[in-house]
């Protein structure tokens, strides 16, 4: 039997230690995460640049396995009404959600996942966790050792 790649499903390779998935749901009551810092600022990846989504107050639940951003709650809690009313808002469509924030300066479109009826975006990349682990390994001399292989 021949192995076949499913070309309809995007395969994602992640080369940073700090980013995480943010689940987007326009119908949830509140944003929920297992880390309170997620509510201080989320940085979704934008192909051109990353822009902070700030202000979504939410519930912290250590047992929760993901970060859930409720876009309706987020747009209400930002109080982004000056100079233009509703500077942060979202529009839900049958196949996607479009989010605008910071007085509509930034826009992010997220497709719905048919399995969960939510969208997913990834936070901004970083290497803080990797650098911390490297420093710890260096201190404890846990670096990989080279083998002398016969030539």
Task: Characterise the protein shown here.
This protein is an alpha+beta fold and 151 residues long. 13% of the residues lie in helices and 28% in strands. It contains two helices and ten strands; from the N terminus they run ββββββαββββα. The strands form three sheets. The chain has a six-stranded mixed sheet. β9 and β10 (118-122) form a beta hairpin. The longest helix is centred in the C-terminal third of the chain and has 12 residues, at 128-139. The model is unreliable at 1-6 and 145-151 (pLDDT under 50).
For this entry, give a set of tags.
151 residues, alpha+beta, two-stranded parallel sheet, globular, disordered C terminus
Helices, strands, pairings?
Blueprint: E1 21-25, E2 31-33, E3 41-42, E4 53-54, E5 58-60, E6 67-70, H1 71-77, E7 89-92, E8 96-101, E9 106-113, E10 118-122, H2 128-139
Parallel strand pairs: 1-6, 2-5
Antiparallel strand pairs: 1-10, 3-4, 7-8, 8-9, 9-10
